[in-house]
Amino acid sequence: MFLRSEHTYLRALEPTDLDFLYTLENDTSTWHVGNTLTPYSKFVLEQYLENAALDIYTVKQLRLVICNQAKEPIGAIDLFDFDPLHHRAGIGIVVSAQYRGKGHASEALNLLLGYCQHTLQLHQVYCSITASNHSSIKLFENAGFEEIGIRRDWLRKSDGTWDNVVEMQRVFPV
C-alpha cells in the first residue's frame, strides 16, 4: 500500500467507521478548532460515509482514516478546499487523545504530503492552527511548513476568550 509507514497507514473511509467517526466528531474538546457548535448524529455521518467515495475533483475534499499497526482507526487526516486550478489544498488532522504523542500524526502527515505532491501534483498545502496548540504547530513545522501569518482573535474559546490562529504553508519544490 502506498500510504503506509513503519507504524501508521492511511486508508479510505469504510461503512464500518461509523462508530469511530461518531466518537471523533463529537469530541467537544476539538470543536473550537473545527467551527463545530452541535453534535453530529449517526444518521448524518452515515450519509457522509455514503458519499465519501466520491472523487476529490468532484467534492473538493478527501478524508482518510489514520490507523496504527493493529489496524485500529486512531484519527483522521483531511484535504479540504482542494483547488485543482491552482494546485493547492488545506490540511487538517485529528488523532484520538490516547494515541497522541506517539508519532502517528507525524507519519500520517508525511504520508499525505507525499500523496499531495506526487499523486495529486499539488504546488502547495496550507493549514490553520490555534496559536495555543504548540504541539500541532511543531508537527507542521517539522513537516516543512512555514508560518505565513496570524489571524488575531480568530476563534472564540468555550470560556469566552479568543485565540489567535497561525496560518502555515508548505510549497513543494518544482
Oligomer: single chain
Order of helices and strands: EHHHEEEHEHEE
Tell me about the biggest sheet?
Answer: 7 strands, mixed
Order of strands in the sheet with most strands = 1-2-3-4-5-7-6
Q: What is the overall pLDDT average?
A: 89
Instruction: Give a count of the beta strands, DSSP E runs of length 2 or more.
Output: 7
| Radius of gyration, taken over Cα atoms and rounded to an integer in Å | 16 Å
* Sequence stretches where pLDDT stays below 50 over 5 or more residues: none
Task: Indicate the proportion of strand residues.
Answer: 25-35%
Task: Based on Cα principal axes, name the global outline.
Answer: globular
- Structural class of the helices, strands and pairings? alpha+beta
The helical percent reads 25-40%
Mind sketching the topology for me?
Elements lengths: L7 E5 L5 H8 L16 H10 L4 H4 L2 E7 L4 E11 L4 E8 L8 H16 L4 E7 L3 H9 L3 E11 L5 E10 L3
Parallel strand pairs: 4-5
Antiparallel strand pairs: 1-2, 2-3, 3-4, 5-7, 6-7
Helix pairs in contact: 1-2
